[in-house]
Amino acid sequence: MDLFERFAAGDLDAFETVFRQSQREVYGWIVRIVRDSAAAEDLTIETFWRIYRWRHRFDPTRPFGPWARRIATHAAIDHLRPAHPVVPLPLNIPAGRTEDPVWQREVRECVAGAFRTLPAQLEAAATLALIEECPYEEIAAALGISVGTVKSRIFRAVRMLRKKLERLGIHP
Amino acid sequence: MNDPRDERLRALLKSSIAPVGDGELQRDLWPEMLRRLNSQAPARQFGPMDWLAAALVGAALLVFPGLVPVLLYQL
Is CATH 2.40.360.10 the right assignment for the domain spanning A3-82? Predict the structure, then answer.
């Protein structure tokens, strides 16, 4: 019986080996979505807890990495979801001070705040596509959706973000 | 995202969203994982309160044997 068959059968030693082999990859993926190392550590544990509970759903003839990544992505989205209370943003940013570092910092804070108010699934797709520059195929596999749906989510994220920023007087 | 406006938005996002550093895990998380596994395990075990309830039911059946058919009927 190979490692993943033993893991799927509930062997704790096999799970430990799988965990040690994969924890860095899972963490690395999650931190790219949630942008917070402490949260990413907690979510790595949460991901492997789900992996352990759902081990009977894993097909040992298929690669472990993509399955784990899909679970990790959903754990990260679950984390982003409650972090979306309405963030108070200033009504308008005075224009015309583009060289002023204070003004630039305020703009960056507003952009980050507006980005965090996007629906979690849009935020995750947009983070991976626009900031991390992951290929659409990779994002689609991680989210368990089609490439077309990924493009649609990114399009909606950009449109929503642009509207929010325009309300703040930011016109990128 | 070939539209220049989209490219400007992407650049603004990149400069506004916190970078993740090297994205490397700094410590082994297995001890924490093991704690999580152990903390969840007792929920499925027979706890002290379960033993107490079983003892009370056993004692009640010894004192009132007439309850045995009632209990069997309920099961």
Answer: no
